[in-house]
Amino acid sequence: MATFIIGLAILFVGAALYGKFCEHVFGPDDRKTPAYTKQDGLDYVPMREWKNSLINLLNIAGTGPILGPIQGILFGPIAFITIPIGNIIGGAMHDYFSGMICLRDGGTQMPDMIRRYSNKGVYTFYQIFCSLLLLLVGAVFIYTPGDIAATQVFGFDGSATSVSTWVIYGVIFVYYLVATVFPIDKIIGRIYPIFGAILLFSAIGVFIGLFVKGYPLINLWDSWNGALVSYGDYFSANHFIPIFFITVACGILSGFHSTQTAIISRTMKSERQGRMTFYNMMVLEGFIAMVWAAGAMGVYNLGLQAADAGLATATIGVVCKDILGPVGGVIALLGVIVLPITSGDTALRSLRMAVSDALHIDQKNVKKRLGLAAVIFILVAVILVFAKSNAEGFNILWRYFAWSNQTLSLFAFIAISVWMFENGKARFVWMPLIPGAWYAFVTITYIVNAKIGFNVPWGAAYVIGIVAAAAYVGLILWYGKKRAARKAQKA
Question: Where do transmembrane segments lie in this chain (predicted)?
């Protein structure tokens, strides 16, 4: 338990210090925000800080900070240290600067941010890559909450041949369509406070329960191989780097988050709300990841659930019901279901906004929004049917989702770095470059080795990953300096 507590101290103390530093580097001021200068009653709508923060938290926190840590904790107590450190210097910094740059640039969406701070080739690749990821997010975040609801709340079998499965999927699908098309303050802004209350009950309830129930958690200095679970052997056999950092996606870093902070950049009343809305909400997601990692380790060590990465969704129900009892467990499960649903709806909303901006499709008319949304939802439905009908469909879907989620962050780090060069902050460019270089190494090494990628042996994959990370940093430094020099000449 001591290592878990140390990790939480690192998370919250580190966030207070580094979050303040990020705010100092960006320099928020009192200029009018796009919520006022472009107010349209649809996407540009001034909303209160607490509501923006809550919406952003629910937008970014899908099943990643739950399923990821449940699988990642099999690597042992090292997870309790790597999650908070990566969160503060990587994920929260990524979310803060992505959201704030979009805010200052007029409420632009991420494709526009990438286009402005890179070149046409990078922008085109990003647009395609991001669109594919958002489609995957939409499908994954119908599949996972739907299956959890079917099997652990209603007691159905959750099979592809059961009508109940598709009815539950259909209900989620309809909600996504409504949330994607209608004004953000009419649907999302009103429903999310209720969802937020359920989420807080779930996360805080499990956290308190860890101590009340006295869950046995292993420390860094203990033996990692216990009578029931051999964390040390798992760590040695499964390539902690890069596998852990792909598995524990959203609790540490998620490229998907930048697409969500961009949405909130259109509803903020003041730039000074950015630290709470963007940085601190990612820290809360890190807390959720820590809680679920600890809960999973506890039930594994007690023998209440088999320590198997493939049983992650079953582990959720065991943790909830053992800690909070039958009724509280069901409410906590609802909190788990809320997370992906409140990410899936805005993932598809941001995809609609990005496509409409790129193709200059007017979205003021409901019929036009429905027309564009219909195309997007048909594609999501195709992916969902494949994932559910094929025996290996969801495993394939999840692996591509996890890898592409982390890879997308590399584009945001490029844009943040170039923005710093152009805005007289080049001395701070190490802030995006350190996590950017790390995840360039992680994602390239993973996909080069993975069976869903190029299936290259580990030794060669590590070499390729190192070379790719070095090239990534070198190209950013070269391009950033070039852009800064060009801007200085124009001035």
Answer: 66-90, 123-143, 163-184, 191-215, 235-256, 277-303, 323-343, 370-388, 400-421, 428-448, 460-480
Q: In order of start, what are the domains of the chain with their CATH numbers?
A: 2-25+48-490 (1.20.1740.10)
Rounded CA separation 436/446 (Å): 15
- Rounded distance between C-alpha atoms, residue 382 and residue 176, angstroms: 16
Residue 305 CA to residue 108 CA, distance in Å, equals 46
Contact 350, 161 (CB under 8 A): no
Is 187 a residue whose pLDDT tops 70?
Answer: no
Find all residues with CB under 8 Å of 203, minimum gap 6, and list them. 287, 288, 291, 335
- CA gap 344, 267 in Å, rounded: 19
- Regarding predicted confidence, which is higher, 315 or 283? 283
Q: Residue 344: which region, alpha, beta or left (left: phi > 0; alpha: psi -120 to 50)?
A: alpha
CB 73 within 8 A of CB 79: yes
Q: Cβ distance 69 to 292 under 8 Å? A: yes
| Strands (DSSP E) found in 166-207 | none
Region label for 55, one of left (φ > 0), alpha (ψ between -120 and 50) or beta (otherwise):
alpha
Tell me if 353 sits within 8 A of 381, measured CB to CB. Answer: no
Residues contacting 430, CB < 8 A, separation 6+: none
Instruction: Give Cα separations from 292 to 70, 248, 274, 297, 339 (angstroms).
Output: 6, 11, 27, 8, 13
Predicted model pTM = 0.91
Of 68, 450, 438, residue with least CA distance to 244: 68
Q: Spell out a b/e string for 428-444, using b for 16 or more CB atoms within 10 Å of the CB, else e.
A: bbebbbebbbbbbbbbb
- Tell me the pLDDT tens digit for each residue of 138-170: 888 898 889 888 988 888 888 888 999 999 999
Residue 368 near residue 362, CB atoms below 8 Å: yes
The dihedral through the CA atoms of 440, 292, 257, 23 has a sign that is: negative
Q: What are phi and psi of 268, to 5 degrees?
A: -85, 140
d(C-alpha 319, C-alpha 330), whole Å: 11
